[in-house]
Amino acid sequence: MASIQYRPIGHTAKDIAADVETAVRDGRLSPGEPLPPVRSLATELGLAPGTVAAAYGQLRERGLVETRGRRGTFVRPRPPIATRSQPQPGHAGALDLASGQPDPRLLPKLNPGPLRHRSPAAAPQEFVLPELREQARDRLVRDGVPAEWISVTSGGLDAIGRVLSAHLRAGDTVAVEDPGWPNALDLIATMGLRVLPLELDAAGIRPEGLTRALHAGARALIVTNRAQNPTGSYLTAERARQLRAVLGDHPDTLVVEDDHAGELATAGLATLAGATESWGFIRSASKPYGPDLRVGTLTGDETTVARVEGRMRTTSGWVSLLLQQLLLNLWTSERTGTVIRRARHAYDDRRLGLVSALTDRGLSATGASGLNVWVAVADETAVVTGLLAGGWSVAAGSRFRQRSAPGIRITVSNLDLAQLDRLADDVAEACGSATNAATGGYSV
Predict the structure, then answer these.
(1) pTM for the full model?
(2) Using CA atoms, how far apart are residues 63 and 190, in angstroms rounded to an integer?
């Protein structure tokens, strides 16, 4: 276990929790750092172990820390609190293959276009632009998603949080993909919800795993339809049929679908929409059109959409109609459509080319859709460090994993085709040998 420099102080569980939170906020305690073991801290402070355990429990409920079995309690990689510590510097000279963001060279121009006589100085009379609602409905229906009720949120993660909060309460269990999207895992933690990880294969989560999760009390399921982060898997039509059969026996399960790649995905869309009484299907604009375009479209059952929209009216109010108009202009632009199609094929060429190059070198690599390639490795830290020395910055799999086997995520956005072979050689060298990575991929 790593050495522990920071020692919390306090006489009550509330005091200890507040001291830890302050230490995270002012930078004395960094993300990923361990907290002292419960019994040793209790002895040091002259308190009962139950008092320290209660403090750590409060911090877990707020999403500030996580317990890693016998290894102890650690500050979460992204604790939900503003800090005064300096941002982590970038790796000078290394190519960014870690951030997960789209290639800026492949994004369409964000042209506001006509504003339809709407003044940004006036509060809107409508929550969703009628033209945007109709465009969203048409696009979803073409993809086989029932879309009678449409709303908009401030991006995909905002929509996921709002749908979960519309039905769940602290302590409820959410079944999630493993490995999965760290932002969603952080969100679930801050909401006081419990995570139940589900294993993946190339076709998505497995029906037998979902069955076990639902019997174990999971009240909700989050699924990535395409471009799953980090593995690149996508839900096939056959797997969707199998999952629908499982969900049919649990109609009170909340199903949340995240189609974040949207128009960038070449894989066909298979959906679980409508398989249960409560569901939400989310598509954000960030990956195809740009990370700063914080608009997500949401459809679902009437109750879910009404609750989300009603609570937004009492908090953020509405998503800017100027942003909605911008997204509408992009959707209806022929030129933008051409740019998106070009980006889609460029990402496919980079991703599939890298998977092929890695596989040729005996590595276990997957990436059927989206922006990422997942590579199974024996030692994440050694591989990430070795690649950084070679000028490549990749993401360690520990950010994404719950119980699944080690790996690294490589985002292909900033890669050129001419770099694929050199990168694959460097990954193989960093792994030590091809056999180190042949551990069965991301299926556990």
Answers:
(1) 0.87
(2) 4
Query: Nearest CA to 259 among 225, 299, 234?
Result: 225
Instruction: Provide the token pair at 195.
Output: 């995570």
| Residue 229 identity (one-letter amino acid) | N
Per-residue pLDDT at 119: 62
How distant, in Å, are the alpha carbons of 406, 407, 436 from that of 433? 16, 15, 6
Domains belonging to the chain, first-starting first, are: 13-75 (1.10.10.10), 95-103+337-437 (3.90.1150.10), 126-332 (3.40.640.10)
**Cβ atoms of 382 and 430 closer than 8 Å:** yes
**pLDDT tens, residue by residue, 58-116:** 998 888 998 888 889 999 888 888 766 444 445 668 999 999 999 999 999 876 666 65
Locate tokens 């429990």: which residue? 57
Q: In what order do the strands lie in the sheet with 194-201?
A: 150-153, 296-300, 278-284, 254-258, 220-224, 173-178, 194-201, 204-205
Place of tokens 């952080």: 186
3-state secondary structure of 228: coil
CB of 228 within 8 A of CB of 178?
no
| 126 band by pLDDT with thresholds 50, 70 and 90 | confident
Amino acid at 297: T
